[in-house]
Design goal:
Rossmann fold; mainly alpha; two-stranded parallel sheet; single chain
Amino acid sequence: SMVPFDINHDIVKSIIKTNRLMVIDEDVPGGASAYMLNAIINEQDAYQYLDSRPKTLTAKEHRPAYGSDGDYFSKPSVEDIFEAVYDVMSESDPVKFPKLR
């Protein structure tokens, strides 16, 4: 459930530690991810702790094909999530986390 959203502000606590934010969402861009970003950044005032722009990883902007194959190519996969999170880590510490490609 999205409501109530992060009532203990656990996401902000994590942002204070990392100074980074990535929202991963199975919805299309601007769907639930837009709600989550607004709630975290504006309503919980997390913007003051960010060292870089927040990132989002969402589903592709098309209707997914039917079945698990369609989900794999339409929604963020394990590989997509790993690469996106690793890029954020590389941005933070390029020596410790060199670019994958």
